[in-house]
Design goal:
Helix content: 10-25%
Largest sheet: 9 strands, mixed
Number of strands: 11
Shape: elongated
Number of helices: 5
Distance between the termini: 31 Å
Length: 290
Amino acid sequence: MSHVLLLRLAAPLQSWGVASRFWRRDTHSRPTKSGVIGMCAAALGLPREPTHRGGPDPLAELAPLLFGVRADHPGKPVSDYHTVGAGRYPLRPRDIATDHRRAAAAAALLEAGEGDTFGDVEVADWYGAPKYIASDPRSGALVSGQVRRNALTTERWYLADAAFLVGLESTDRRLLDRIGHALEHPRRLLWLGRKACPPSGQIALDVRFGTLEGVFRSAPLLPSPSEAPPRPGDERPWAWIESPRPLPGTAPVRDQPVHFHAAGPAHTARWETRGRVTIEPNAGDWNIIL
């Protein structure tokens, strides 16, 4: 007998990266299994790697869960233009004490009294944020190996005002209850794909008997996270439902988490179907915290 834990993923901004790089960080059109499982692992306080050699896999319980997404309010893709680095920053007392190169460069300014406090003094062509940190052979202190840096531009994509109904299916009702409780009482910070995107309102809704497909039909639409009127087709939202094996009509998606090691995560393929969901007329309404 299967049960489904329903989650509400809504916020002003979400970003579910698929092939992000430093200069261009994309977002999927919907939450990824890797991102949601990672959020559940953070809520439960699981380590990134086994605590000892040969220890249990932290994702042993979470990775096998069947995953589904219903796009009740798909949101609007928006991009944010960033510049990173460059410029000069005011000196601090520790900048003078730990970096003899910076102290020498600032000596003339300090002696001339061009500034009443350290925060008023800047060294020309000196980038103040640390980059390429290494031990200085002269003093032994940790210093920056790059004193000047050109500005870098990055393009970052988000989903604005989106709300997704996510389902996690399992035969283990106690596991789903434990995950739902942890998401409302997390042991670590939670975010929707990126640290700049904290979730809003209630995340864990309830655990229902049935399969992902059946529960998505019986669950009402989530409230809109914005004041915008419903769009045409909202009454039959798109849904993506994981299949435990490749079947006719399924497509591969490479977001099945293998591990979240600090050196870099690993993923493999899973299988899912895509289609519209007709919500039952007697689905009712939600009583949730927005």
